TrEMBL record, chains A, B:
Domain of life according to the entry: Bacteria
GO MF annotation terms: DNA binding; DNA-binding transcription factor activity; pyridoxal phosphate binding
HTH gntR-type domain mapped to chain residues: 27-95
Originating gene: gabR_1
Family: In the C-terminal section; belongs to the class-I pyridoxal-phosphate-dependent aminotransferase family.
Keywords, alphabetical: DNA-binding, Pyridoxal phosphate, Transcription, Transcription regulation
SMART domains to which the protein is assigned, alphabetical: HTH_GNTR (SM00345)
Family matches, as InterPro entries: Aminotransferase_I/II_large (IPR004839), HTH_trans_reg/aminotransferase (IPR051446), PyrdxlP-dep_Trfase (IPR015424), PyrdxlP-dep_Trfase_major (IPR015421), Tscrpt_reg_HTH_GntR (IPR000524), WH-like_DNA-bd_sf (IPR036388), WH_DNA-bd_sf (IPR036390)
PROSITE patterns attached to this UniProt entry: HTH_GNTR
A Pfam family reported for this protein in Swiss-Prot or TrEMBL: GntR
PANTHER family: HTH-TYPE TRANSCRIPTIONAL REGULATORY PROTEIN GABR
Protein name: HTH-type transcriptional regulatory protein GabR
Amino acid sequence: MSNLETFSKANLSRDLFAISLDSSLKTPLQAQLLEALRGLISMSPDLVGARLPASRTLASELSISRTTVQAVYDQMISEGYLVTRQGSGTYVASEITHLSQPHPIPRDADPTTHAWRPFQTGLPDQTLLPHRQWARHLERAWRSPTPELLARPDPLGWHPLRAAISDHLAAWRHLSCDPGQVVITSGAREAFEVVFHGLLGAGKRVAIEDPCWPKLHTILTDTGNSAHPVRIDQDGLDVPRLPIGAHATIVTPSRHYPTGVSLPLPRRVALLDWARQTGAMVIEDDYDSEFRYRGQPLPSLSGLDGLNNTIYLGSFSKLVSPALRIGYLVVPKHMLQNTRTYLDHVGARASLIPQPALATFMNSGEFAMHLRRMRRVYARRQNHLLSALAPVSNLLKLQPDSSGMHLCVELRTALSNRMTDVEISKRADERGLRISALSEQCVLPRKIQGLLLGYAAFEEDIISNAADRLATIIQPPC
Amino acid sequence: MSNLETFSKANLSRDLFAISLDSSLKTPLQAQLLEALRGLISMSPDLVGARLPASRTLASELSISRTTVQAVYDQMISEGYLVTRQGSGTYVASEITHLSQPHPIPRDADPTTHAWRPFQTGLPDQTLLPHRQWARHLERAWRSPTPELLARPDPLGWHPLRAAISDHLAAWRHLSCDPGQVVITSGAREAFEVVFHGLLGAGKRVAIEDPCWPKLHTILTDTGNSAHPVRIDQDGLDVPRLPIGAHATIVTPSRHYPTGVSLPLPRRVALLDWARQTGAMVIEDDYDSEFRYRGQPLPSLSGLDGLNNTIYLGSFSKLVSPALRIGYLVVPKHMLQNTRTYLDHVGARASLIPQPALATFMNSGEFAMHLRRMRRVYARRQNHLLSALAPVSNLLKLQPDSSGMHLCVELRTALSNRMTDVEISKRADERGLRISALSEQCVLPRKIQGLLLGYAAFEEDIISNAADRLATIIQPPC
């Protein structure tokens, strides 16, 4: 208590000494000081009970007469802002706090924030992040920031983070690139904006996989391009199906979203040949391939290409936390100048605050350790989900997936004859689950009926419970 | 040293125990473990010298035979990855660190980062931020984050930050609003995108001040709107000059950018009347009015309006640091639903990482204290700049400015007869200064000749030196 009081008192004095008064103004000094002191007190509820400096001290600090200060103190005592305590000075009154709050503000809860619901996809288990270590990286980066951190920021991002990402890609994705080719963004949407506004331009015909991440359609529309969906088969995108005259294609070769199919090497080679021959760009969206549980992952498509006709997109939303809002793209060297010109024009959007912390988190090895730990946890959760759903294996095509954070489960005929995936999704929603319908991620006819079941973010007992609820929804009435 | 070794050793064991092996694969377990261990070591330079777990322990953890583990250890010893020390076990060799770097990466310096140059405008003195306090807020927010911080984020921003901003606006800008009306953005550009993409739509005729912030033109073009510059006079924007049929106007009433003129009350009232009568929106860009050194600031225009026909834009780039990339807008209640729909569609871009720290920084009173301290420092620097330029007062119209972070100094005829402001800006650039020419911020004819001299971010001796350099540039040859 006495510490608190000293602290507040020190603040108040310092603030008072910082007041700017101007004798050349028409407003008398006394009125200026009165206004300033009133403002100070009504602005800072934490000043309640703080002692004011002696009038002599304040007068000397502000180079005004002591009479002026005393007159202001007196007036504010009469107004109830200040109180005197016999023999011990003048204090900020406790009754005036309500003046500082023109309207009551609820602080504790955000009415629009909601918990994540089971089977939500694309979500890591954020509770398992090594928060103490992460917070320490943040604190160390900013407690006495290097001059570089306070210098003119590069709109392409914090260089040591770009170097750490380049290392990570070499080690995990067999993608060799210079740190200078890595561009930090505020997420996938901005990455696509850089690609389409800054590098390829509008009016492009862009082939996309069908099914695909539904937002891709709106991103392409919003950037003034047209989307040309190409139905994938059991091996993913097939080059002969690409539309003639496409300027670019967006693919998820490591793990097709949402089905989880991995594009085999011959198709990758064919895709890169197609790009070279037609001059089209291949945009590789590599959103969670670090989470591979079995088998050797294929190198990234961009690594195979050597980043000539490919642009690589990555993100930390699934590897670390969506709170970061940090994604990145890796661009071919011949596109670097245009990338810089565009980002100089529109300005960076990614906050610099997490970037140095993320760089040291990666360089310390804690990031790789976290990924490996999550890989183990997520593998266990996938197994658990498969076991929990085993009782309804007559209705759902259950198969282990060698990677990823969700299962894409097709409906068997016994189920799809009775219900659509959209109906199941709707009923699941009513029961507190968040299940995306596979058919809603397709735009071409013959939509596949299936469910996307995110398991990464949920503990085993939640998964069991959610699987039970799903079973209740899809089981035939007795 | 021994602590470090224990730590690394602990990491290595933990990582090894997390390896996923799959006996159903064609690749033998031994080859899988070899590949995994090689990857682990070449990925983490900090593992050098770490001790490997005993082969018996690892075999038990991975449920494989001890012979397999020993065979892998032996092969890696022969490859030079590992070394044995007599009687004390197996260690990661120190010679292999170079293996982890497929290409040398410069880590220390970002070749494209530059120091800020004197007279740069719009820049706070970031070295004076209470970094330790700020870093502590970051650390406290994230060391064991509340469930709300890990829940589904509101695309409108972290609610306690929105509440803190609402408090700040009530106290400093006489703007009363609900926290729910405050929308966090990644900066001014995104704020304008929300306004034009999400609320007003494209194809709008937007009146802007002339001169103005040059990026406004490109933002309006990029969002599909047309800019209609209106020449300001000595009192700022005058309503009778607004173009007929304008759908919106963007103004800087507290402190016109770049001239520093404050819009008088009668003109504010007239502007709000115009908006009410025509149904147009007034967008108030209130970018640095917290830094007022003399006189009473007028309440914000949006406060006067009660946020009916006004949208308010603010930013922390100048008040705290551009590294945050945190700005905000305050929207009328009747526009909240559209704001949410738009942000649900495009997603949030502002990082969540700085938001809880900024909220507690503001609620603790440290933010207000920082602003008051900066106000005092910047006032002193402005005075210092005026004194330092006094020798060339026959060439420049020097006048104290009651607020802001830069002086807008018009050229006297004796100077403008010899040189344009653009020439001065160019020569200043060659001498390491960053002086914007006022005429380049105008698009209408009869451009005003003047210089923008940012002083906030620079210490007195740098200001003196820069003023001397400027004097050398503009003084007539002897």
